[in-house]
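Protocol step 4 of 6: structure prediction from sequence.
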Amino acid sequence: MLRCGQKSIIFLINNGGYTIEVEIHGVPYNVIKNWNYTGLVDAIHNGQGKCWTTKVFCEEELIEAIEMANGEKKDCFCFIEVNVHKDDTSKESLKWGSRVSAANSCPPNPQ
């Protein structure tokens, strides 16, 4: 995308892990190291072409980032990392994760 001069806006929703997987399995391997996603895009970009990255942590910052991407940075490939709380998910998703967890712990169904 960078090489081809794409002027896309990509949003990465970063909740710092695998919320549903933790709900299903609750095992330590689902607690992952949080990457510097904007740093990764900057490294791939390496100063060639037009690229803009930012991290946001609240609604106001997200609004500002979107305005920047559609305004001053409209001729750039824009990557916006939206950081949310690790448990920011719907009650329905958590209930589903609990049901899958219960199903995973059942003995196999003989055929």
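Step 5 (inspection) to follow. The first helix runs from residue 19 to 25.
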